[in-house]
Each structure stands twice: as C-alpha cells, then as structure tokens.
Amino acid sequence: MLIKSISLTNFRNHTKYNLECNPTTTLILGENGCGKTSVLEAIYILTQGKSFRATDPDIIKRDAEFYRIELRYDNGEKIIATYNQKKKSFEVMDKKTSRLPSKQRYPIILFLPSDLNLISGSPSSRRKYFDRFFCILNPVYASALSKYEKALSQRNKLLKENFVNPTTIFPWNILLAKNGALISKVRREYISIINNSLTTTYRSIADNQDEVELNYQTELQENITENQYLSILEQNYEKDKIIGHTSFGVHKDDFEFIFNQKLADGSASRGETRSIILAIKFIEAAIIKFKLKKAPIILLDDVFSELDNERRAALINNFKNHQVIITSVEKFTTKD
Ligand SMILES: Nc1ncnc2c1ncn2[C@@H]1O[C@H](COP(=O)(O)OP(=O)(O)OP(=O)(O)O)[C@@H](O)[C@H]1O
Ligand SMILES: [Mg+2]
Predict the structure, then answer these.
(1) Which ligand approaches the C-alpha of residue 53 most closely?
(2) Fewer CB under 10 Å: which end of the chain, C or N?
(3) Structural domain of 70
(4) Do residues 87 and 141 share a domain?
(5) CB contact at 8 A, 79 and 46
(6) How many CB atoms lie within 10 A of CB 19?
C-alpha cells in the first residue's frame, strides 16, 4: 500500500498543511524549524498509533483547541486522528476508536539523525530503537511492552512509599514477570534473526571483510520462566526498597554492537558506524517485508546530509522498490 496524501491541521507549527505523495520518492524541502519532521511524525501517528518523539499535549499547535491529521492510502482508505486537549481518537472509514486498530497499522522504517548515534548512545536509546522495530513487527510484543512499562512505573512508585510491603507489590511483580519473560524471549529471537544477515548486509555496503554482530546484553538467563522471573523480583524486594527502584528486569537490557569481535563503540570508525546503521535499516525493512508481507514505507528525516555519496547511493538503491519520504534542508545529489 502507498500513501497518497497527508494533511495536518493545528499540528505543531502547521495551521493547515497538505502533502500529495509520489508512489516512489517524495522530498519535503525546507529550512530548519519549518515543520518537516512534524509531517513524518503525523504519518507515524497515523500508521503506528503514536508519535516517535512526544505526546499529544506537546504536539497540538500552541493555543489551538484541537489537532486533526488525515492520511489517505492509494486504495482509497482514509485514517483520521484528532485530539481535542482531552481525548485522542482515530477514525477509520467512519468508525471511531480510541486507539489505532492493529489491522490499520502499516509498517514504517523511520530513519532519524539520532539513529546515527545509536552505537555510541545510551542503553536506553538502543532499547527504545529496537523496541520501536519489534513493536512494528509484533503486536503481542507491543502490548507486553506497554504493560511492562506501566507495571514497572507502578512498582517503582510503590517502592518509594513507607507503607509498601511484599503483598502490596505482588500484583506488579506478577505483571513484570509475565510480560518481562515474553519481552526477553522475543528480543532474543529477533536479535538472532538480525544476526543471520548482519555481516553480509554490512559487507554489501562497506565492501570489505569486517564482521558485525548484535549482542543481547541481559541479566536474564535464556528461556527464563515467569516463575523464575517472579522469584528473583521477590528475592530483590528488600534491596529494591532501599534503592527505591526495580533492579532486575528487561528494562536493564542492552543491545551491543560487536565489530570484529570488539565492542563497536570505541573500535568502529565513523564511516563504519554509519554503514552498520544502514545495514540495520536494510535488515529491518527486509524482515518486515518477509514477516508482514508488506513493503514498509521509508521515512528518512534529514539523514542525507549526514551520509557520504557512497552511503546515500546504497540507501537509495536498497529502498528503490519502496515508497520513500525524505526531509532535507537542502537539495542533495548522490553524485559528486
Ligand atoms: N506544539 C507546538 N505548537 C507550535 N509550534 C511547535 C509546537 N511544537 C513544536 N513547534 C515548532 O514547530 C516547528 C517545526 O518543528 P519540526 O521539528 O517539524 O521542524 P523541522 O522542519 O523538522 O526542523 P529541523 O530542520 O530543524 O529538523 C519548530 O519551530 C518547533 O519549535
Ligand atoms: Mg527536523
């Protein structure tokens, strides 16, 4: 499926904005702050159900009473999201819902400038990155992650209270164990799928013999059961109460990039790092296409200025059979 058009009302700095999209490449050109990333953000909300960078109170145009965004696909389907300071709602073919129904989701590959810092960034930025990908791939993972995050925040809040005891915290332990065990299993599985093609994809971009691997860095043993997870949380209760937060769980996981048997952060060069990120993006698109049987739409937010000609060409070539929407401050070329 292809996006035909997107229109925005009172969304970020846009009072009214409409974009007709090409089936192949659409370029959104404009100076800093003119609202380019916001257009991608609106597309992301209408395909994934929520923004990749903020919540609705930040998104609604300052002093406006509502925002409305509308996306039309080439098959005639139309999805509308509105937010009126209190409530967000989605409307698909005249049916209103508070969340975007999962069958209305359409896979997206989002490439942000900050993704280029993925390898040297914080563990939490890597978790967020891979979670975004795994959520698109697997609605069960998305639901488990959302439940896990809510339970974690509740448990951490309780741990800071004087009245807390093992009984009051028990329901949250159960939720963390159930969803945490599933999250860990899915992370392990997807990392292994990524690793099946990481080195070959990297070599197709960088044209050399380097090896790249993604390593799941976790305290959780393989195939941990819900009961094992639960008993660790229970054993940690006194310690967690003293430190005031949950010390064990998938919220501490990391995804490490290994480059020629060494941690890529600190050993891979800037160019090599960029090639690794491109490889990850290409693999994301391939896995999504294979698993979901849909060609993801590619949103490239201002990344061309960060890439050299060789990598720009690799990017364009790899995504030539996808709909690509690109934002940029300046016109660019893939030739010298
Ligand atoms: N809720 C809001 N209401 C009004 N304006 C907003 C709101 N949120 C953000 N803005 C402004 O909207 C503008 C557009 O932001 P956006 O990130 O889309 O710009 P951009 O074109 O991608 O810029 P850059 O090239 O710097 O990445 C910015 O000037 C930002 O300060
Ligand atoms: Mg931007």
Answers:
(1) 1
(2) C
(3) 1-106+295-336
(4) no
(5) yes
(6) 16
